[in-house]
């Protein structure tokens, strides 16, 4: 686990797929043909926590949906790329648009995906994560498999790990408890 925390401590940008990661992967249509998705509130708190400490977030998804834009805005996601089947090309294009002064390369990214279109992007980044119900080939190429499935707090697990890697987890938790914030020195 310490190796994962150390690796997560290098992350400057968390990139997430939507279907199967931020949602449970089901596509539900109502009687009028309107698509709906369910998102985890816990994931939202996790994504917002990264922003508090200057860690950027992005969504890259193969489908296009207004509800993804809405959820991304609610969570404060910095970049949203929709309708892109080739996730590696989308990731490289995204990285080329980020301010060069931030010095973010693929090696500074974490990528969460669950299916075959995510693999190339996951193989390019410094930290690759997936969910337990991901395709076996994705699991085999991931640094970490969360305990929770997509849409049920899996993203939150990665956000918490990134905060631990950066030494901010206890400070973040202290915002929600009556406990005093513990510094990284207190934890060693």
Which helices and strands, and how do they pair?
Elements: H1 2-8, E1 13-16, E2 28-29, E3 35-36, H2 41-52, E4 56-60, H3 66-75, E5 79-81, H4 87-97, E6 109-112, H5 119-124, E7 127-130, H6 136-140, E8 144-145, H7 154-165, H8 169-174, H9 184-187
Parallel strand pairs: 1-4, 1-6, 4-5, 6-7, 7-8
Antiparallel strand pairs: 2-3
Helix pairs in contact: 1-7, 2-7
Q: Which features would summarize this protein structure in a list?
A:
188 residues, alpha/beta, Rossmann fold, 9 helices, 39% helix, lipopolysaccharide biosynthesis, KdsC_fam, HAD_sf, 3-deoxy-D-manno-octulosonate 8-phosphate phosphatase KdsC, magnesium
Rounded mean pLDDT is 93
- The count of DSSP E runs of length 2 or more, i.e. the number of strands, is 8
Content-based structural category = alpha/beta
Assembly level: single chain
CATH topology: Rossmann fold
Strand content: 5-15%
Order of helices and strands: HEEEHEHEHEHEHEHHH
What percent of residues adopt helix (DSSP H or I)?
A: 25-40%
**What is the number of domains?**
1
Distance between the termini: 15 Å
Characterize the structure shown.
The protein has a single domain, classed as HAD superfamily/HAD-like (Rossmann fold, 3-Layer(aba) Sandwich), CATH 3.40.50. The chain contains nine helices and eight strands. It is α/β, with parallel strands linked by helices and 188 residues long. The model has no long low-confidence stretch (mean pLDDT 93). The chain is globular. The relative contact order is 0.20. Strand 6, helix 5 and strand 7 form a beta-alpha-beta unit. A six-stranded parallel β-sheet has the order 5-4-1-6-7-8, sandwiched between helices. A two-stranded antiparallel ribbon has the order 2-3. Helix 1 crosses helix 7. Its cofactor is Mg(2+). Pfam families: Hydrolase_3. It catalyses: 3-deoxy-alpha-D-manno-2-octulosonate-8-phosphate + H2O = 3-deoxy-alpha-D-manno-oct-2-ulosonate + phosphate. It is an enzyme of class 3 (hydrolase). This is 3-deoxy-D-manno-octulosonate 8-phosphate phosphatase KdsC.
């Amino acid at each position: 686990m310490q190796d994962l925390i150390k690796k997560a401590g290098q992350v400057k940008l968390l990139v997430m797929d939507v279907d199967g990661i931020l949602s449970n992967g089901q596509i539900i249509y109502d009687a009028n043909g309107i698509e709906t998705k369910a998102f985890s509130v816990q994931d939202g708190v996790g994504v917002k926590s990264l922003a508090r400490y200057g860690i950027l977030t992005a969504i890259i998804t193969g489908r296009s949906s207004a509800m993804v834009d809405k959820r991304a805005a609610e969570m404060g996601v910095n970049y949203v790329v929709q309708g892109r089947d080739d996730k590696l090309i989308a990731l490289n294009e995204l990285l080329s648009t980020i301010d060069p002064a931030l010095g973010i390369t693929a090696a500074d990214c974490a990528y969460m995906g669950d299916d075959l279109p995510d693999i190339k992007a996951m193989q390019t980044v410094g930290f690759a994560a997936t969910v337990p119900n991901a395709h076996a080939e994705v699991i085999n190429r991931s640094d970490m498999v969360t305990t929770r499935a997509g849409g049920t707090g899996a993203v939150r697990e990665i956000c918490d790990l990134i905060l631990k890697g950066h030494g901010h987890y206890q400070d973040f938790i202290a915002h929600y408890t009556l406990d005093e914030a513990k510094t990284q020195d207190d934890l060693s």
